[in-house]
Amino acid sequence: MILAPYPIGTAGRPWGEAEIAQWRAGQRRRRSYADDVLRAIDGLRGRFDVEQYGELDYDGESFPLLAIRNRERSDALPVALVTGGVHGYETSGVHGALQFVDRHMADYAGRLDVVVVPCVSPWAYERIHRWNALALDPNRSFRAGTPAPESAALLRLVAPLRGRVLVHVDLHETTDSDETEFRPALAARDGKEYAPDAIPDGFYLVDDTTNPQPDFQRAIIEAVAKVTHIAPADPQGCIIGSPLVSPGVIEYAFVELGLCAGISGAKYTTTTEVYPDSPRATPQQCNDAQAAAVRAAFDYALAHRDD
Q1: CATH number, residue 242
Q2: What are 194-225's pLDDT values in tens digits?
Q3: pLDDT at residue 72 above 90?
Q4: Which domain holds residue 75?
Q5: H, E, C per residue of the chain
Q6: Considering the domain boundaries, does residue 1 fall inside one?
Q7: How many domains are there within the chain?
Q8: In a domain, 290, yes or no
Q9: Tens-place pLDDT, residues 114-173
């Protein structure tokens, strides 16, 4: 695939404030966080507690940041954390999280203190974009002193829970637009050369190189395989440039890379990756896959919490 040079910036030179402003001016609101997400959360308030843990303000646009929790809470229970919409364009991460809450979260009452943050990056959700309004990737920004307000707010929410979090599932997608827009934009922003890669067709997981849990990942893959297909390795034995460590599983260094899945200190952590552009998957299958991944992760963590 040969792409034209990215239309913002000068090749080989990182963006400055002018280029970021130009990029931001080109972003258009394409869907509604209030209609799609806040309204859905309002429909859950009769069964669950909803907590506002922060608020974003970009040029006068305000976005309340909400977490959903089960009501049967106790400091004696382990915490189970679900995050979605860290990348706002990854739709099933948001709606899969909401589906899990609606259909399955009550099943864990009295066994887990469940915290679900369905949309970490609402500005990006509305623009169907990976970055926030500052042209920052929130999922490379989970570290002390972060300039990404979405990441900072979530870090504050999770901080008092650290030490109690047993399992954390971070819901993502890998889309065709990663190659047509987001990775070329990243290369342009950083003044680097863009190196094309293949998009894997199917669901896969990312484990933590510093805390690998292969049996945990395998349990999730087996559950999701009943819902949608699992991504195969490419001819080099990789998925998005990383070697496959087991069917449907690669590894990243969560904390070192500033990834959301590294914020909790949980024993069991994973990042899901659904492929919504596959001709073999529907939007509902993608939501179902995310919800199935969360359920399998929670069930495994509960069964093996003392291992």
Answers
A1: 3.40.630.10
A2: 988 899 999 999 999 999 999 999 999 999 99
A3: no
A4: 17-303
A5: CCCCCCCCCCCCCCCCHHHHHHHHHCCCCCCCHHHHHHHHHHCCCCCCEEEEEEEEEECCEEEEEEEEECCCCCCCCCEEEEEECCCCCCHHHHHHHHHHHHHHHHHHCCCCEEEEECCCCHHHHHHCCCCCCCCCCHHHCCCCCCCCHHHHHHHHHHHHHCCCEEEEEEEEECCCHHHHHHHHHHHHHHCCCCCCCCCCCCEEEEEECCCCCHHHHHHHHHHHCCCCCECCCCCCCEECCEECCECCEEEECHHHHCCHHHCCCCCEEEEEEECCCCCCCCHHHHHHHHHHHHHHHHHHHHHCCCC
A6: no
A7: 1
A8: yes
A9: 999 999 999 999 999 999 999 999 999 999 999 999 999 999 999 999 999 999 999 999
